[in-house]
Amino acid sequence: MQRILITGGTGMIGKRLTSLLLDKGYEVIILTRDASKYRQKENEISHERLSYYEWDPSEKTVEPAAIRNANVIINLAGAGIADKRWTKKRKRIIVSSRVNAGETIVKALQEIPNTINTVINASAIGWYGDDSVRKSNAPAFVETDPNASQYLGITCKAWEDSIEPVKSLGIRLLKFRTGIVLSEEGGALKEFKRPIRFGIAPILGRGDQIISWIHIDDLCRMFLFAIEQIGLSGVYNAVAPTPVSNKNFMISLATKMKSKFFIPFHVPAFLLKLFLGEVSIEVLKSTTVSSEKIKNAGFQFIYPSVESAFEELI
Ligand SMILES: NC(=O)c1ccc[n+]([C@@H]2O[C@H](COP(=O)([O-])OP(=O)(O)OC[C@H]3O[C@@H](n4cnc5c(N)ncnc54)[C@H](OP(=O)(O)O)[C@@H]3O)[C@@H](O)[C@H]2O)c1
Predict the structure, then answer these.
(1) pTM of the model
(2) pLDDT tens digits along 125-143
(3) Would 71 be classed as within a structural domain?
(4) Residue 25 belongs to domain spanning
(5) Which of 94, 170, 237, 305 is buried most deeply by CB count within 10 Å?
(6) CB of residue 180 inside a 6 A radius of ligand 1
(7) Which of 306, 109, 295 is closest to 215 using CA atoms?
(8) What is the count of structural domains for the chain?
(9) At 42, is the pLDDT very low, low, confident or very high (cuts 50, 70, 90)?
């Protein structure tokens, strides 16, 4: 059985992925900036096939045993993109944490004897621009489209470039441009649910901007699919087959949570800009992203529609 090393495996996606891989019989090695935190205390996931090792991507150092013992690396590490206001300092941390992670993995693979055969790197649909810049005859952004020239597009390009050298080491490389991940454990869904609990369904800006999303279990199954289908390589969009407008997303979520007992409320764009600053550009951006490539590779979604996702998550 392959041994899977997950950087940033302590985060929202990493924890769910770890559970799935352990269930499937894999050994999981989590690379974290603070292994003692997880080794000492009763960590949330504890298992005989799970171990924690430490790295410091800002210093480009890794415990060599983590690399020596693994066959596959899944790189999820990076400072939260929407966790805090985008000050100049925060924007630098968002990029550098990802580029440092990629470069640290490349350096470790060059210097530490290893049997790594596959690297799967997280990326984001922030790679793409607004739907208005998409080729007019294309129904959705596809993997060959260029990166956007705004902050997130440039960040994703630097993130993806930092891991690219692993290919010259003869290692299979995949990059997952991931949509908004829907999970009970946090992320965007938690924020969307908060006002609905009080009976208000906020529709952001005009509400017609498209959200390309994915259920966390489908995303984790996609990582598993990539590990097992050794013919796959390159970039894949990790989004569900049915992107929806912000308005339809919120109404569908509110209906699931509250039946008819909620009031849709339009939050004007200027208020979002006031409260969120530059992050509001991303919230108001319409990004329709295609899942055709991964579907054509044989991947089957369990949660293809927001209704099916909410049915499971709410
Ligand atoms: N969630 C989404 O909707 C979504 C969408 C698109 C792409 N993604 C990408 O997928 C990856 C995983 O997402 P997630 O939601 O699981 O993120 P998360 O919960 O924030 O976890 C990311 C992990 O990265 C590590 N990390 C945080 N700051 C870091 C830094 N400055 N330097 C190095 N490592 C750092 C942390 O692990 P340690 O503290 O243990 O080191 C953390 O647990 C991220 O790169 C994210 O950008 C997520």
Answers:
(1) 0.97
(2) 999 999 999 987 899 999 9
(3) yes
(4) 3-182+213-239+288-301
(5) 237
(6) yes
(7) 306
(8) 1
(9) low
